[in-house]
Design brief:
2 domains, 7-stranded antiparallel beta sheet, alpha+beta, single chain, Pyridoxamine 5'-phosphate oxidase N-terminal domain-containing protein, Pyridox_Oxase_FMN-dep, 27% helix, 233 residues, Pnp Oxidase, Chain A, two-stranded antiparallel ribbon, Pyridox_Oxase_N, globular
Amino acid sequence: MFRTGKETNGSNRGRQIMAALELNPNFAIEDEQSLRALFEPTHSLATLKCQNTLGAHAREFIRRSPFLCIGSQHLDGKADVSPRGDPPGFVKVLDERTIAIPDRPGNNRLDTLANIVANPNVGLLFLIPGFDETLRINGSAALARDPQLLKDMAVAGRAPKLAIIVTVSEIFLHCAKAFRRSRLWSADHFQNRSEMPSLINMILDETTGAPTDRDEMRTMDEGLEEDYRRTMY
């Protein structure tokens, strides 16, 4: 299916020689008609379930959810997806078509926020631990600094600098197949985090190079944990 292209070799530590792969055009799907010809028509319920307002079950799902992913895209086509998490109920339902997501402290790359300023279209995926089903929302986003709204989103006395306001255009519940295939919530399928290096170690491996001294690396890891404690809100 793939053709092997030119080999590339990164100069930074930890990178391996990898062959660049090119899609064989004989097997490429290049239009929607060709795509849909591969599949059976969707059943009517999959179409009917799509709503444009927040019903009682959607509101309850959002109230219970401590985690979501938000997908956004810049005008230049650059796409991004970002995780957002807080105690359950952190996303506020403002009315039947509007929700508000607090923006907590991060690394200040501002990928999602900059994308929203350029292109308001977003997609959200809400998760609840232990639930195999998810809630999907597509809509239009804006950034707001309304003091009263932000005050109601404060945690430990610290309000966010801004909130992401999403106007719902499409909302629906998504089936359990992906989570059941992955066994995401099954404790006997959890992986051992210690089998991979720490976050800072991996980033340094791919950039400037990680220290070989274990004590130095341990100090850096402890510094990250301390930063988490100081800047969570």
